Amino acid sequence: MTFDKAKKVLEFVLLKPNGVSTKHKINVGFDEILCIRSTPIKLKKGLPTCIGKDDSSSDTPNAIFIYYTIRVNVYIWRIREAAVFFTTTTEKKQWEQILQNTLKELEYRPKNLLVFINPYGGKGLAKTIYENQVAPLFDLAGVQAKVLLTERANHCYEYMQELDPETWNSIDGIVSVGGDGLFNEVLCSTVIRAQVDSNKDITDIEIDSLTTPRMRFGIIGAGSANSIVSTVHGTDDCSTAAIHIAIGSKCAVDVATVHEGRKLLKVSANAISYGWLGDVLRDSEHYRCMGPIRYQWSALRTTALHPTYFGRVSFTLSNQPEQPLKFPECKKPCEICDGTKTDSHTYHWQTDFTHVICCVIPCVSPFTPYCLAPYTGLGDGSMDLAMVPKVSRCANFRILRKVAMYGGKGLIPLERDLHVYRVSRWTFTPGALILGENTVEPEKVQQGAWNLDGEILPQPSDKALHFRLHPRLINYFGRELDLDDPRYRRCFCCYKTEKKKSNIVINPIE
């Protein structure tokens, strides 16, 4: 074993019985090392099953055990053990002290976490998942976690707003064990608290910038969709997410705020949708007793009803194009086209919409495994705004089928029915506000519901909703995936990793 202190990298070389080096070696950076112990632990399928106290009185003579993380395929992370045996006890203690001190110098490793668990989300297994799959990893890494079981809606929000300053400043990260709804509540409460402490008005949509919360965010996917955690890690595997939290992985994520005039409604770090997707979520709330399959049932019901909503979408591009954009004509009457009203945004489109979808991140989920918005990123400073006008039921079914089977890239041939733009802010004005409540076309003033990170947000009939992006506002426990990497288009069984040769290295190399 050799240690490069400058690069903080350990190199393990497997030796023959006579001390001659073999070709089998592995480099392990301290970024991937979870812990260093004097006593071994039991691993089953790359995960700890029994963790005893690392007591020096019961340690293994002349040996240290290094537990490091490794990708077993494109997405899944697990733990491996390297047992290093020394010739003398003095040599062992010297190496152990050097390695332990180097590990403690990693300032980005979390030491204190606040964990919120929704025991009722998804299949109701969040508490069991945390105790069996997450807590042992935190114990192994020496992470202190304060656990709170949520008892009602907004419980997490109220707790964070009332948290005393001493505890607030001691937290390194906030972890939600549940679905996208719980994470959205954690996100809103933390971002709002950070702005209050820095005397910034988050309700002002024209504010120059918001304050980044000092703590990072993590999700253990125990809900029905788990879209955010799947987007960041490429999988909703709970152990993989826990490993990234324990080793302190970090990536910056864009966040969008939703405003109704001078009122802040929500903070979003996932997808905002109106029309078909919003109605599916609203309808599924009536069938919670069915579990996750309620989404498929509500999707069939909503497809049969085929709702469309009249309104106007106005938006500002994140980067101005070389040539002006061309839209189909707006449905009359359009005050902006007629010149009787001005708009703060550069572009607008007024029509009957089947879908209005804004993606802050690529949005991977069980329903969109190949990304709903594959061309956007976690922290690229833009949102993808997709608009689909009124189409037939068959055309809508084709769109949904292509998204489910091929992702957003499969919709490129549907240029006539799909309009996608990269925006920094946008506004939706409902039909009732455009035409008035007493219009002779009552179907034009029907209001749908928004699907905002898995939460229902009713569309007010007399107010426009405004959406603004705040680039890289939060930090997340994860490492952004390169979705253009060809490995992400292959199944797990086609991705071969280096075979494990041995977990024992003898006689450290000088």
UniProtKB/TrEMBL annotation:
Residue intervals passing through the bilayer: none
GO-annotated cellular components: membrane
Molecular function in Gene Ontology: ceramide kinase activity
PROSITE patterns: DAGK
Domain DAGKc: from-to ranges: 108-261
Top-rank lineage group of the source organism: Eukaryota
UniProt cross-references to PANTHER family, sorted A to Z: CERAMIDE KINASE, ISOFORM A, SPHINGOSINE KINASE
Name the UniProt record assigns to this protein: DAGKc domain-containing protein
